[in-house]
Design brief:
By secondary structure, the chain is mainly alpha-helical. It has 10 helices and 2 strands, in the order E-H-H-H-H-H-H-H-H-E-H-H. Helix content is 77%, strand content 3%. Strands 1-2 form a two-stranded antiparallel sheet. It is globular, with a radius of gyration of 21 Å. Bound molecules: protoporphyrin IX containing FE.
């Protein structure tokens, strides 16, 4: 079985650092919501307060948020050409019509399978995908927008504690902070399900550990990316 490189070491390290920070920040952030604002239940806040203490929970949330933002502030310029720009180029290579068709057909396929889709007269063929599929691109774009807005509003909230007269700004910052966290709390379980549990995705999950995917998998899941690799290899051989 021929294996091809899909992720390099720095991208893999950053992905798992990112995943751990996000899970901690979402968990601790939801625990900070009190009373009727608490969507999970009082037990969730009690669990986290039991671990970090009443004041310690906010300190831990701000500390991990700052660590996460600080590491990305270093990583982005240092790995701009190698990781960041190629990643941005791939996720913003959106073709709205094709990508929406991919998302709709994939969702029906996951819920009712190919035979169910044929029964209701739907086509089962998914539009060919590049390095990322349409679902990955939409989640990644949302994650970038939400990340920037969470950092800006988070910093505002953290520093406004010491300032008087910023009540209106703080309310808007808190609303935006909660909306972005809420959106990511919906999208991340979808990302995790699609990456770790959905049928046929195991090689992609393994590639986030080893860096490599079987060539047949790439050919089937990411035919446009595979075709571009074949073309590059052809050009390289000609020179
Ligand atoms: C434990 C939970 C998670 C699992 C199992 C997981 C799994 C994966 C896998 C397997 C891929 C590679 C997909 C591919 O090669 O096509 C991936 C990519 C990605 N994931 Fe996650 N993920 C998790 C959490 C997160 C979180 C919390 C975020 C935060 C926003 C995130 C953001 C991303 C991004 C931006 C990519 C593309 C990155 C790249 O290709 O370098 N993931 N994830």
């Amino acid at each position: 079985m021929t294996m091809i490189r899909r992720h390099n070491q720095s991208a893999i390290c950053m992905h798992w650092f990112n995943a751990l920070c996000w899970l901690f920040l979402l968990g601790s952030g939801f625990a900070l919501l009190a009373g009727e604002m608490q969507p999970i239940g009082a037990w969730w806040s009690e669990l986290w307060v039991g671990i970090f203490g009443e004041a310690g929970l906010l300190v831990a949330h701000i500390a991990i948020g700052s660590l996460w933002a600080g590491i990305y502030a270093l990583y982005t310029p240092l790995f701009l050409r190698r990781d960041v720009l190629p990643f941005l180029r791939e996720i913003f290579a959106v073709s709205l019509r094709c990508d929406l068709i991919w998302c709709i057909r994939k969702a029906f396929w996951l819920v009712m399978g190919a035979s169910g889709m044929r029964k209701i007269g739907m086509q089962t063929q998914l539009p060919a995908q590049g390095f990322y599929n349409a679902g990955q691109k939409f989640v990644a774009i949302a994650a970038i927008i939400c990340s920037i807005s969470l950092v800006v509003t988070g910093l505002l909230l953290a520093f406004s504690v010491m300032q008087q007269g910023l009540e209106a700004l703080v309310r808007w910052a808190l609303l935006l902070h909660l909306c972005c966290a809420g959106l990511m709390a919906i999208l991340l379980p979808v990302h995790i399900y699609m990456a770790a549990c959905a049928p046929g995705e195991r090689p992609a999950l393994i590639s986030m550990l080893t860096g490599f995917v079987p060539e047949d998998f790439a050919k089937h899941h990411n035919p446009l990316w595979h075709a571009s690799l074949v073309e590059k290899a052809g050009e390289h051989n000609r020179h």
